[in-house]
Structure formats: structure tokens, C-alpha cells
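Session log. Operator J.P. requested a structure for one protein chain; no other inputs attached. Running the standard single-chain path with C-alpha cell output.
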Amino acid sequence: MTDAVAVLVERLGGRVPKVAVVLGSGLGGLIDEVEDATTIPYSELPGFPQSGVTGHAGTLVAGRFGGTEVILLAGRSHYYEHGNAAAMRQALEALAGIGITTLILTNAAGSLDPEMSPGSVMLIEDHINFAGANPLIGESTDRRFIDMTGAYDPDLRAAIEKAAEATGTTLHKGVYMWFSGPSFETPAEIRMARVLGATAVGMSTVPEVILARFLGLRVAACSVITNLAAGMSAVELSHEETKEMAPLGGRRLAAVLRKMFEEGLP
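Structure written below.
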């Protein structure tokens, strides 16, 4: 048992949640909706990352959301902060160690589809690892050769689609392309991404999906669209725009997740 697992087992006091949600930009408010909450700062969990991104709290919250026992991770570590694609490995290993079987990831992303405007929500069906980094580099066992064909669980995706329909939320679907960041993409890179089949671009999530599959977790992921990508509008891209627009799509995605948990995960 790792140190982080031991701390979680003690602090959770017998709770055995099976699902965890990583909250990206715009979703941090969900922690206020958790009932009977237990809050643990990442600083008290050995191996958990200390995020240096404004808007990411760095807090684990356990409790009931939508009637389901969940763990929410308010904050993640990004590759662009340190160049370590495996920065979330110990945190995800700890979650798996306490019995988490399902991981739902959320993020803020730029849209490559003019009809998918800021404030929209996109269900990720697949991804393109354009950053080229991989969190399993250095893993010595043959487990590193993980199959990514069905990385985004079809049953979870269907449950998210059903919840979106029930809440009247327009749910776009598409392919997420991971760029390393922290600089935003150039217009030429966005034109390339569209040719390669991407629907949205962002600077997170893909390493966590790879790690989660490595650990045997089921995965689903959604993007909150905060902007049209470079060259698609006259607006200059900035992190301030991301923080300003993320709560709009975040509220829509929160309603979908709440409904999905109320109905029960497949």
C-alpha cells in the first residue's frame, strides 16, 4: 500500500467510491455540490501534483454527487509545467489502489469547428497525441504496450449522450488533439489539425487517458469549448479568455454529469 493510498483509506472512513472525475477549467464549482464531503488538499497526499495553473485548486473531494459516491480531483498537473508526461501517474495509481474503476476527465479546449462555439460541450470519441510525449516512457514491463483502440469506453460515452439528451444539452462529438503547450497553436498548426481529423485542441487529458488505460480503468472525457482555435476568429487567444469562457460550458457539462450519476453508471 502506497503512502497516498493509506492516507485516502484513512480519510475516506470506509467509503468505497468507484468513480473519479478530474475537473478541468470551468468545473471547479462542482466541489460545492458534493454532499457529505471530505476534502483533502493534494499537499497531504504523497505523490499528488502541485498544480501551478491559476484556476486549478489542487484539492481532492470525496462524497456524494448526483446520489453517487465519487472522488473529484480539482486540479491536474500539465505537461507544460515541467515536461513530465507522467506527472499524474502516482495520483491515478492511488485512485486505482483504493478501488476506483472509472475515470471521467474534463478539460478546456479550442474548437476547430465553427459550429462548435465557445460555451459548447464536446464528448471526446478519440484523440491524437500530437505532443509526441507519453507517460509510459521508462516503464520497464511489457504492460507499457497498452492497446488504445477502445480508450474511450463506448458504454460511458452512451451514458453521457443519454444524460445530455435528458437535460436538453447540445453535445458535440469529436477528436481531441493534444498539443504540449503552453503557447497556443499557430493558425498553420490548426489548419494541419483539421486536415488530420481533429475537432478540438488542448494541452491536457491525453497523458491521463493513457495512464488510466495502463491501470485498467474505464475512461470517458469531455471538453468545454472556450474559444475558436487560432486563425478562426479575430480574437487574440489568452488564458484569461479560457478562464472567462470555461464556466459557461462548465455549467452545461456539470448538468450532464449530474444527470448521468443520478441515473447510475453503466
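Operator note: The mean pLDDT is 93.
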